[in-house]
Amino acid sequence: xxxxxxxxxxxxxxxxxxxxxxxxxxxxxxxxxxxxxxxxxxxxxxxxxxxxxxxxxxxxxxxxxxxxxxxxxxxxxxxxxxxxxxxxxxxxxxxxxxxxxxxxxxxxxxxxxxxxxxxxxxxxxxxxxxxxxxxxxxxxxxxxxxx
Length: 147
Ligand SMILES: [Zn+2]
Prior knowledge:
Layout: H1 2-5, H2 20-47, H3 59-64, H4 73-81, H5 85-110, H6 116-122, H7 125-144
Helix pairs in contact: 2-4, 4-5
The structure holds zinc ion.
Zinc ion (ZN) binds next to helix 3.
């Protein structure tokens, strides 16, 4: 409509913003970059044991002595990459429990049109607040009962 009226500011269709193929190319680049980073992380954690090799320590743990929600994730990832699920759960059960959810989030973001309803649900306020509640509950529980 804006093009018909000659106003370029009203022509904000997909074609006016560079077209849909530009966005798709960006998605492919992002996907390739994401896969490369994931392979790099897997290689590092598969080869180096966080218990033996220097890895950055958690600042929350250093400052407060308390476990943050992510404490033990490096060791859990290393254990998972060596097939030791029990040890991974012992290091950080939330990380292990989050893997199916992270997989679902990734799939929903990779196919936003096909999985539109799932994507809306995963991005809904209720779902995000539920995840935050689980993270807070996990942090409290692991510092009180799971020490
Ligand atoms: Zn931590």
